[in-house]
Amino acid sequence: MPMDVLVGLQWGDEGKGKIVDYLSQDADIVARWGGGANAGHTVYLDGKKHVMHLLPSGLLQGKMCVLGAGMVIDPEQLLKEIDGFAAQGIDVSPGRIMISSLAHIVLPTHRALDGAHEGGRGKVPIGTTKRGIGPTYADRARRRGLRAVMMKDPVKFGQQVRQLMSEHLDELRRFGIEPNLNFHAGWHKHEEYANRLAPYIKDTSVYLSNCLLAGANILAEGAQGTLLDVDYGTYPYVTSSSTIASSAALGLGLDSRCIRKVIGVAKCFQTRVGEGPMPTELPFDSVVAKHLRSEGKPGEEKGATTGRPRRVGWLDLPLLRYAARINGLDELVLTKLDVLSGLEFVRTCESYKYNGEEIFDLQGEVITNLKDCVPQYQDSLGWPAYDIVCGKELKEVRGNAGSYIQRVERAIGMPVSLVSVGVDRNDVIKSKGNWFLF
Ligand code: IMP
Predict the structure, then answer these.
(1) Any ligand 1 atom below 6 A from CB of 228
(2) Which atom of ligand 1 is nearest to the CA of 273?
(3) pLDDT confidence of residue 305
(4) To the nearest whole percent, how much of the chain has pLDDT over 70?
(5) What is the Å distance from ligand 1's center to 30 Cα?
(6) Catalytic (active-site) positions
(7) Which residue's CA lies nearest to atom 20 of ligand 1?
(8) Is residue 129 lining ligand 1, measured as CB closer than 6 Å?
(9) Cα 50 vs. chain centroid, distance in angstroms?
(10) Structural class in CATH, domain 104-197
(11) Is the peptide bond before 236 cis (omega within 30 degrees of 0)?
(12) Atom of ligand 1 nearest to the CA of 308
């Protein structure tokens, strides 16, 4: 009864959507276990861009898709997504998509509170996506949240939404925000959302457990990234949910022993949206930063959810080793190797100088004091685009591009199983052996 778990190893946006799409060819079910519409998983199919915020990326491979109990679901956004895919002829019926009855519901007032809390932090905002994620998880912890199961009785759900929204409106007033009329009327719409979503709501823990017993393959799709995990990330500049591999079983209501393999996805460089420390960050307008951001090209480094240009920097190996350990990685997938092509040299951060000492691995307080870490770099020669060959017949990585992957493997002590070298579904090169040897 195997479940493979796919996690992001950096600050989200590692290109997980495309890798889930690729790996889900061998899966029967793709299940998301945490986060909400703060995610933006992008898949390019025949040059067309598809972005999923709530629906698992396995949808485009025609797989069964599950939204797990650990998620926070914005019904308005979900229906928008369902309707958008339906218009493209993709099956989005309750036979293809299931929502856990235990997942929590995001309301428009959660989104407004997210904005108000950010405003209240003055000069030290988190830089959230303002999708209401933090306030919804906070309501879950305060035990006043709304769960998906409540939608099965749409009229009662409408009243419960009204009650919680009025509590939120009081809180917003304390921030000096006088909510507009749309908020007052907003709860009505939730009755309609509930009517439409009720058929999708199931006990997904039972469903997934039975599927595993029957021998199905499940791919658990992580959202955000390890460094945004609420406990193990760069707190407080993190999201409000658990993003690491061990939370997959919890968020899906499964026996943790069902995890067969943990696959981690990392970009060949660092990116970050929102605030918080990033030791290898490059000056925003530098030539290399613009190159890494692929400005004006497909796959440009802009937040898929917010459209914000991403901060970029060189690959940070101490952070990658930390993420590999925290997740118990079995395999490493590298993305965007092609983006580094054409640079004269590439840098990797091998260690940090911290409190006068050179450190290779993050221990103790270092993750909380990341801003005081000074990266120690190693430079290596860059490579031309033709070192990466990704045709129908031949797929290989040569020369300095190949050496770069091997350097990462050695530094992490982990085989690279897959390298993504372009935006399209087929721009993927598989390792020929156990390790990425050429
Ligand atoms: P929140 O999850 O909207 O509360 O945002 C908290 C932090 O996580 C902010 O820095 C966001 O930019 C970041 N974040 C949340 N979701 C994602 C994601 O899917 N990709 C990248 N960053 C994210």
Answers:
(1) yes
(2) 12
(3) 82
(4) 98
(5) 22
(6) 13, 41
(7) 12
(8) yes
(9) 15
(10) mainly alpha
(11) yes
(12) 12
Is residue 177 within 8 A of residue 220, CB to CB? The reply is no
**Which ligand 1 atom is nearest residue 38's CA?**
16
User: What distance in angstroms lies between residue 423's CA and the mean position of ligand 1's atoms?
Assistant: 22
pTM of the entire predicted model: 0.96
134 Cβ inside 6 Å of ligand 1 = yes
Alpha carbon distance 323, 424 (integer Å): 27
Residues of the chain with CATH 3.40.440.10: 3-102+200-261
Q: Give the homologous superfamily in CATH for domain 265-430.
A: Adenylosuccinate Synthetase, subunit A, domain 3 (3.90.170.10)
| Range(s) of the chain covered by CATH 1.10.300.10 | 104-197
Backbone CA torsion sign across 273, 416, 316, 420: negative
Compute the distance from residue 320 Cα to the ligand 1 centre, in Å.
19
Q: Do residues 205 and 249 touch, judged by C-beta distance below 8 A? A: no
The class (CATH top level) of 3-102+200-261 is alpha beta
Q: What does the pLDDT read at residue 129?
A: 95
CA-only gyration radius of the chain, Å:
22
Output the six-digit token pair for 422: 């372009």
Least-confidence region, from 29-33, 325-329, 333-337, 425-429 = 425-429
pLDDT tens by residue, 86-127 = 999 999 999 999 999 999 999 999 999 999 999 998 888 999
List the structure tokens of 145.
């949240």
Domain with CATH 3.90.170.10 in the chain: 265-430
Q: Is 273 in the pocket of ligand 1 (CB under 6 A)?
A: yes
pLDDT band per the 50, 70, 90 thresholds, residue 303:
confident
